[in-house]
Specification:
Blueprint: H1 3-12, H2 28-52, H3 64-88, H4 109-123, H5 129-160, H6 162-170, H7 191-196, H8 200-224, H9 229-240
């Protein structure tokens, strides 16, 4: 008999696993503040680079393959936004353990969504900078979010105990598995819950970053090259935001 699994069955038998204890983690606040500084100092300059190095429209790339990479980046970004919205619709922070929907396939679907958004924005910059930025972004993401996930899993273990450890044994920490793990009754997706979890933030953030990238290759770059604002604006309206 698998005793830990039996305990998990019992824990989930009456519905979603509720938080009945406070998180206890050594130096948790100090460690999270340090990671917040790393995110601010590392990722914001990268996002600025995603804008500054988007100085050429996708259709202006010399090779078809380079154009394809950039359009794939747009799709990857959209996939990341949808992943975050889907995840937020299941999340009840500090109330219950989310194990349904995307949480049955990966323990950190929100971070998967964040990773996809960043990868997509990097890919949508001008070739070959997009490849360099994609590499830099992934290296930074790995080290910062590996530490962040470690802190959060310590907290969740202290709150939920053995049932959470059983969940961890069945669901991968990051890259989703094809078959969802399911145990007991769980809360379903709620759009209202997603909105309460500020699902509009990734939509707004991506919209602003895309607008900044388009403005960079459609208006800012012509100005940098010496065109007047009137000429740059006319070129933009004539389709310069799309291609040549």
């Amino acid at each position: 008999m698998n005793e830990p699994a039996d305990k998990a069955d019992e824990a989930f038998a009456d519905g979603p696993l509720k938080a009945t204890r406070q998180a206890e983690i050594r130096d948790g606040k100090r460690r999270e503040k340090r990671l917040d500084r790393l995110r601010l100092q590392g990722f914001w300059p990268l996002y600025a680079a995603f804008i500054g190095l988007a100085y050429r429209p996708p259709l202006s790339e010399a090779a078809v393959g380079h154009m394809v990479v950039r359009f794939i980046g747009i799709g990857v970004t959209l996939l990341g936004v949808l992943m975050r919205i889907w995840s937020m619709g299941y999340l009840l922070k500090k109330e219950e353990l989310a194990t349904a929907g995307p949480y049955g396939r990966t323990r950190n679907p929100l971070y998967v969504g964040t990773w996809l958004i960043g990868c997509g924005l990097a890919m949508n910059t001008a070739y070959p900078w997009n490849l360099a930025l994609l590499l830099i972004y992934n290296v930074m993401f790995y080290f910062v979010y590996r530490a962040q996930i470690g802190i959060e899993e310590e907290m969740l273990t202290s709150i939920y105990g053995e049932p959470y450890e059983e969940y961890c044994r069945n669901v991968p920490p990051f890259f989703p598995q094809l078959t969802a793990w399911h145990k007991g009754a769980v809360s379903g997706f709620s759009l209202l819950r997603a909105l309460k979890n500020r699902a509009w933030e990734p939509i707004l953030g991506v919209a602003l970053l895309w607008a900044a990238q388009v403005a960079m290759w459609g208006i800012a770059k012509p100005l940098i090259d010496g065109q007047s604002f009137a000429d740059a604006w006319q070129h933009f309206l004539a389709g310069g935001w799309i291609g040549p």
